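Reproducibility note. Readers wishing to regenerate the assembly model reported in the main text can use the exact inputs given here. Chain order matters: entities are listed in the order in which they were concatenated for prediction.
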Amino acid sequence: MRVAVVGATGAVGRTILQILDERAFPLDDLVAFASARSEGVRLGFRDDEVVVRALHDRWFEGVDLALTSAGGAVARQILPAAAAAGTVCVDNSSAFRMDRDVPVVIPEINPEALDGHKGIVANGNCTAITALMALGPLHKRFGLRLLVTSSYQSVSGSGMKGVRELAEQVDKLHEQIETLTRPDPQALPAGEVFGRTIAFNVVPHAERFDPEGSGFTTEELKMGNEVRKVLGIPDLVCSATAVRVPVVAGHAVSIYGRFESPVSPKEAREVLSRAAGLRVVDDPARDQYPTPLDAAGLDDVLVGRVRQPDGDDRALLLFAVGDNLRKGAALNAVQIAELLIER
Ligand SMILES: NC(=O)c1ccc[n+]([C@@H]2O[C@H](COP(=O)([O-])OP(=O)(O)OC[C@H]3O[C@@H](n4cnc5c(N)ncnc54)[C@H](OP(=O)(O)O)[C@@H]3O)[C@@H](O)[C@H]2O)c1
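Running the prediction on these inputs yields the following C-alpha cells for the assembly.
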C-alpha cells in the first residue's frame, strides 16, 4: 500500500504523519507532497525521515490512498483526476463536502456513508466534527430538531500561519499589557490571517463573510450544512456563531440542542458516556469541565456542562471540546482510511 500525504508540511499534514505512526497504519511506502516552497524539506516519520516533494501533475501515479490537506483550491485542482485514476482520496478541505457524490464521514457517527463512495471522501469541518461527536449519539436516541452553537476556535484552525501570528502578537503586546485597558487602535498589531488583533482578544470572524449576504461567515454555514448531511436531517434548523480565540489548539463549542423526545441531563450523560470517541467530563461540584488545554493532544472529544434550560424538557445545553488537528482533521482522516481498509 502506497500512501501519499499532500500538504505534509502543514499543521494537519504533520499531525497526519504523527497519527499514521502512532496507530501503526499498515502502509508499505509513504510519499509526502507540499508546495514547491517545501521541496526537499525532511519530515520525521516513524524512525526515519521522509523528503517532501513539490506537487506535480502525476503525483497520484502508483498511490493507493491519499490523505490530502492542502486547502480547497488545491483539492479542486488535483482530486478529480486522482480519484478517476483509482487513488482513494480522503480530503480535509471543504471543497467537496457538499457534493452529492462525496460522503462526509465521521467513523463513530456515520460509517455507513462510506458505502459506494466514488473515490473522494471528505473529512468534516473541525468544529462540526467536535459538535457532531456529542450530537450524533444524542440524535440517535432523542431526535435532534433545532441546533444553536457558539464556537471558540483556536488559531491552529487557520494552520501554522495562524499559530505564528498569535505568537508574534503575544510577543509584541505582553510588555505593554497595562495599555490594553485603553488601547490605541492604531498601535494594535493586525496580521494577515485574522485581520484584527488576535492576542488578548476574540474575533467573531472565521473564514469570510457569506458572499450571499446572509451575515453569517462561511465557517458558520458549514456547521448547519455538515450536521444536516452527516446526521441525515435535511430540515434541521441551525444557527452558528464562530469566534476565533487566542488558544493554540482545541476548538470548544457551546451547544444548544432541542430534541423530538424529552431528555434529562442524566439520560444525556448516560448516552454520551457510552459513545465511542467521547469522554464525559462533567462534575461541577469538583470543578470538572472540559477546556481546550485539556483536549489538546487527545483523540477523544470531551463533553461537559450538560444542563437543561428551565421549563423545556426537550432542550439541552452542552460544552464540547476537541483537538482540531487530531479528531477535527488528521485523526478522523486516518480513521476513515482504516475503515476503508477494513471494508
Ligand atoms: N488546521 C485545522 O485545524 C484544520 C482542521 C480541519 C480541516 N482543515 C483543512 O485542512 C487544510 C490544511 O489546513 P492546515 O491547517 O494544515 O494548513 P497549513 O498549515 O497552512 O498547511 C497547508 C499545507 O498545504 C500545502 N500547500 C499549499 N499550497 C499548495 C500547493 N499549491 N500545492 C501543494 N501543496 C500546497 C502547504 O505546503 P507549504 O508548506 O509548502 O506551503 C502545507 O503543507 C485546509 O483545507 C483546512 O481548511 C484544517
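We highlight two features of this model. The chain has two domains: 2-123+329-342, 128-154+202-323. Residues 7 and 13 are 5 Å apart (CA to CA).
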